[in-house]
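Submission sheet (multi-component)
Chains listed below:
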Amino acid sequence: MCEANVYLHRDGQEELLMESVDRIIPGEDNQIFMENIFGERRVVKARIREMELVRHRVILEAVPEEPVQRHTEIWLEPETTHGHFHPGEAVIIKLNKGYNMQADSQAELKDPKAYIVKPEGSRELELHAHHNQGEINLTEEIDGLAQIYVHEKGEQERYAAVLVEVGHHHHHGTQPIGLPLEIISTDYSHARMGENYEIQVLKNGIPLAGAEVKATYSSTKNRDYPHHLTTDETGRAKLFLTARGNYLFSVTDENIISTFTLVKSF
Amino acid sequence: MCKDMPPLEKAIQFHGHICPGLLMGVRAAEFAQKYLDIDPDQDEELLAVVETNSCGVDAIQSILGCTFGKGNLIFKDYGKNVYTIASREKRRAVRIAQKYKPQSHPDSLRYRELKRKDSLNEAESAEAENLLGAIFERLMSTPFEELFTWRDIDFSFPAKAEIYPTVQCSVCGEGVMEPRAIRNGQNYVCPDCV
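Outcome: structure written.
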């Protein structure tokens, strides 16, 4: 066989993808790179179905998408478009239930409790929950920085944490809240698109190595989390930020799902 | 703006979206700032000569403040991703040229293929988003010297942009910058009406 025509088999039909292909390289994630004798190149998400060497034909078939293994999680999102609130502004934090920053209309919040953590101590907050959404009004509560978290008890324990900023503050590290499973930022103020951002996973206050941390962002068109990170021996993992808006990090261990919302200015 | 907007965000807001061409312009603009030790332009302290009208030029405009409207962005239609940035104060100029690469990365090829489509289905939209993320990380993490070459050049600084009087076109009645108008006896005619 010299060169071959490459076809894509779909719904019982064959569609010509490229003629006179002389190079086919299977890549990661079911990607196939091909190049023809004219120097044209193409990458398709498919796998090889059949190679008819005598007839100079290579037939590919599209790879069906794997079903998304979803778990339901909760997460917090401040109602601000630029990462922080100004003094005097209404400070509203939304609680959502769903997956991959997409609220699930079938999900129900089950008596979630919200707490505020300040250097002087923590206490419960009023949380108005209805169906799969909740709201916390912090307008009278904070001036400066505060960590907010929500806990939903049950067979599956769910936690959601966020750092809320009123005014402009320079803050480099946040103290762990002390949750059984928690994601913290190692340098909160340095969250810029186009740069790496580091988080750390703690289990009962101790760094959790080898944990899978999923990360997503509010504008994603992916059905499943677009990023999967693994923590190193110090429980840390880095993500290069490529999207505008807020990011969500999620980690699962035993029966606990814990999320951390990174609120970005841009 | 209550927090300093990072250069990358300035470029994205100006250009309207994130794309590989814009990111290359961001790299060039940020390099020029550091290399020449300059602040963004306020009033024509800087001058940019760009040899393309593609996406990267918007990063030069938004990050360095060399803009079409201010007159300190000079366009040479050479179709080359080359940017010369000059500082009147420092009396220095650097010419930054994107390196030619005969082979594009497969991610870039596929991304371009998707962007050429009139519409994308859900899976293709997600694929394009993920490819752009991968390209974004690669372009911003690659050492500058692998993407561009640069050299100091002798640069003769032109005078700052002049403000000319406006005259009225005798045909359409609209105002036109005097040097662009054609004199017809006592009257002026704008280029559009000639």
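Remark: The interface with chain B takes residues 27, 31, 33, 41-43, 45, 65, 82-84, 86, 168, 192-195, 220-223, 226, 240, 242-244, 265-266 of chain A (CB under 8 Å).
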